[in-house]
From TrEMBL:
Signal peptide interval: 1-27
UniProtKB keywords: Copper, Metal-binding, Oxidoreductase, Repeat, Signal
Xref: InterPro entries: Cu-oxidase-like_N (IPR011707), Cu-oxidase_fam (IPR045087), Cupredoxin (IPR008972), NO2-reductase_Cu (IPR001287)
Protein name: Copper-containing nitrite reductase
Native source organism of the sequence: Pseudoxanthomonas broegbernensis
Enzyme Commission number: 1.7.2.1
Amino-acid positions noted as binding Cu cation in the UniProt annotation, renumbered to this chain: 115, 120, 155-156, 164, 169, 310
Assembly with partners or alone: Homotrimer.
Amino acid sequence: MRTQLRPLFACALAGAIASALALPAFAAQPAAAKMETIQAVLTAPPMVPPPITRKTPAKVVVDLEMVEKEMRISDGVTYNFWTFGGSVPGSFIRIREGDTVEFHLKNHHSSHVPHNIDLHAVTGTGGGAEATNTLPGRETQFTFKALNPGLYVYHCAMAPVGMHIANGMYGLILVEPKDGLPKVDKEFYVMQGDFYTEGAYGEPGLQPFSLEKAIDEHPTYVVFNGAEGSLTGDNALAAKAGETIRMFVGNGGPNLVSSFHVIGEIFDKVYFEGGTKYQENVQTTLIPAGGSAMVEFKADVPGNFILVDHSIFRTFHKGSLGILKVDGEKNPEIYTGQQLDREYPEGEPQGGR
Ligand SMILES: [Cu+2]
C-alpha cells in the first residue's frame, strides 16, 4: 500500500511546486499533445511492421503484454517460455527518430512472476526497467523520446536477469532514421537465442530451465526465433529472385555471441551492431548478445539459402538453422549448379604423399 501511495504523494508535491512556479503540472506533455497520436503496429517474428512514411515525429502508443506460456522448442520438446507479446522473440516495435513513445507494459494475470522492460533504444534509467516493474495482473507506463536511430534489443531486466532472458524475454525495436531506410522488397525479423534445459538436446517432454547449464554457458539449444525449425519447412522465409531483402537480426543471448551467416549469399550491406554506418560485401557478421545488425542483399538466384550461426556445431547439433527459400528463374551466368560428376585417372596426390 505504501508503494502505491508514495507516487501519488510525489505527483501531488510536483503539482504543487509546478503551480507555485506557474508552470503546467507536466511541462513535457503539452508539446507531445500537439503531435499526432499513433497506435504502434506490433508484429510477431518473422514479420516486421510496415516502413514509416511520415516525415514528422509523432506520439506513438505501444501496448505490450508479457505472457508466460508453454511452447515447442524442438520436435517433441516444450519449454515454459516467458514472452513479450506471446512470441519469442517478442513483438517487433517500429518507431521513428524523434518520436515520443508512451509505453504501456502489461503482465498477464496468469503470470507467476513480475517482469519489466529495458529497451536499449531508451535514454533513461534502466532503459525503462525501473519504471516498468510490473506484477502479474498489473499495467505500468512510462514515456521516452527516441533520440538515436538504430536497431535496438529490448529485454526483461527483472532479477535474476539471466533467467528472464534465457526464458525468451527479448525482442527488437527499430528506430528509423528521420529520412527512413532505403526501400527494399522484403523485410524479415530474425533473432537468435541460447536455451538451457535440464534434459539433453532432443530429450522429449516439457523441459525445465537449468540454471547450472546457463551459468556454465553450455546451452542445450541455440535457435532462431525461439524454436528449432521456426524458419524451416513451411516456416521458411520466402522471396523471389531479383528481390532485395533486409533482415533485422538480433541476438538475445543470454550468453553466446552469434556469427551470423547466410550460406550462398553475400551481404551487400551490413549496418553492423544495428547502428547508422554500414559495411559492404560481408560474409559473416558478429552479433553480440544484447546487440543486432541489419543485413541487406539482393536475392540474385533461386535456391535454399541457409541462415546459420557459423559457430557451426550450434547449427547442426543445437538448432541454429533457418532457410530463405528463393523462387524464380535460374541465372547460370551467376550460378550454374553442378556441371560435372565423374571418375578421374589416379596419380600422385596434390602436394605429394
Ligand atoms: Cu521477466
